[in-house]
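U., I forgot to send this yesterday:
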Amino acid sequence: MSRHNAVQNAYRSLGKEATFYDGMITCSTLPGRVVCGLVWNMI
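Result:
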């Protein structure tokens, strides 16, 4: 298994947690925007 496939499989195994994490990093979801605004003062 290549490193790329290993990373994809690990990401898929996270399921909804991966989506939640992505939203936090990109500030693209409501919880992500709240965190960006409160913690990082980006909004």
